[in-house]
Write a structure and sequence with these properties.
Number of strands: 0
Number of helices: 3
Structural class: mainly alpha
Helix content: over 70%
Shape: rod-shaped
Strand content: under 5%
Order of helices and strands: HHH
Largest sheet: none
Length: 86
């Protein structure tokens, strides 16, 4: 959808450069600028949306606590490592 803004911006830019009326030229160039900015915002929102993580895959606090307890139990079950001999 945001690519339509780019096409319309190019069209407004073409109209702005090909028309002989100053008022129409200014309006079409401003419209081209606004449409180009809308295209950039849509493109950026799409890129951010694709790279964001799914909130359903986040770890809830109870699962995080359980994982910490498992890691603590493993750490306590391992014999302490001896320092290297010099």
């Amino acid at each position: 959808m945001h690519w339509l803004f780019l096409l319309m911006a190019v069209g407004a830019l073409y109209v702005g450069f090909s028309v002989t009326s100053t008022a129409v030229m200014v309006i079409s160039l401003l419209a081209s600028l606004v449409l180009f900015l809308l295209w950039i915002m849509g493109w950026y929102a799409r890129r951010i949306g694709e790279s964001s993580r799914d909130p359903s895959q986040m770890i809830d606090p109870t699962e995080l606590r359980r994982l910490r307890e498992v890691a603590e139990a493993r750490r306590n079950a391992m014999p302490p490592a001896e320092p290297p001999a010099s």
